[in-house]
Give the backbone structure.
Amino acid sequence: MQSCDTLILPRWCVPIEPPGTTLTEHAVAVSEGRILDLLPSADARKKYRPREIVDRPGHVLIPGLVNAHTHAAMTLFRGIADDMPLERWLTDGIWPNEKRWASAEMVRDGTRHAIAEMLRSGVTCFSDQYFFPEVVAMAASELHMRAVVGTPVVDFATAWAENAMECISKGTELVHDRYAEDPLITTCFAPHSTYTVPDQAFLELRVVADQLDARIQIHLHESAREVEDAVRATGKRPLQRLADLGLLNSSLMAVHAVHMSDDEMRQLADAGVCVAHCPRSNLKLASGIANVPALRAAGVIVALGTDGAASNNVLDMLGEMRTAALLAKVVSGNAAALTASDALRMATIDGATALGLADSIGSIEAGKWADLTCISLQAINSQPVYDPLSQLVYTSHPDQVTDVWVAGRHHVDNGHLTEINEMELLQRSSEWQRRFSTKIGN
Ligand SMILES: [Zn+2]
């Protein structure tokens, strides 16, 4: 017999690769943080002598969910500016609060809160863009959470940097260079949008990102007004401006892509640009509904993200999958436009691809990191089970997530966080809420 660290025995397993596969009575063996084997449970019991067995007889095991776009620290702004369109939400709700409150301490506490919330809902990797990215990276690394840490780039003074050029240099030094060797942290650059970054900074960013082999992600064509204002100010739609600046390539991820013409979808596909779809944030800010079926038909890889908790207001990828699947049917008039299987792929392997991590996460295959999520289908709202994939996408809620592993670390065990003190974390968050309320005068 061969030894391994953990043997997970779920009722069902959806490994994502090969596509369309749902396995019954299969086991996953984990060793040294990586997936060692996926094989029939009966064979696994004969072949492996595990240090720990995790038996989950009414559960489905999937790769950990990949939240391709969020602003983790904004959990502390959850509910602070509701029911506003994007532009007013930013200028009246978010930016004044960030100007007053964003600090290393706030980002640390908000990021830790977000990590706890995401783990509890089955997320094992998140892609972030927020001020003090070095603090985001530190919080994720300390908590053993996988993160793609985006250095925010904006050309106005913030608590973190004076302008776009300083953002780029600080990101290089404090985030990229410092975390280059951390297996859980990947770094990238995250210019906020074309309306907050001038051409000169984009050109600098292109050179720096090429030198560091770092990817870029940007909010793009999120609202109709963003596109109209850009045409008025520059004579170009934002996508065209990025193309003219030489930024359209396979290391770019466009976040939102709600207002794209057919030609622009083809342009994205031809350049290999991936998209992060954030359906509930788009709905809440009344930005519109991205035409995901058309993007996918054009050949664009579409990942899924929650966006920040100030515009969603939960970091729940299960809910995001369900919303994406439902919206795609309405927007296309085709009930088969995005199936449960498609939605789960978007939240796993397509997210991994969009973040440049498909070789190491996003599916249950030997050799990949053991980033895994186990969900109980024994809940009343998920019974009876004809098709576990259907129940997973169309019925599941975060409180059905029983187990989560990040690189083999058992972070959620039978529904409980093993390494994060939830009470302490909630106390910190309510302290911030009291501080915000006092100053704002609510
Ligand atoms: Zn965003």
Observations:
- Residues 69, 71, 219, 255, 307-308 surround zinc ion (CB under 6 Å).
- The radius of gyration is 21 Å.
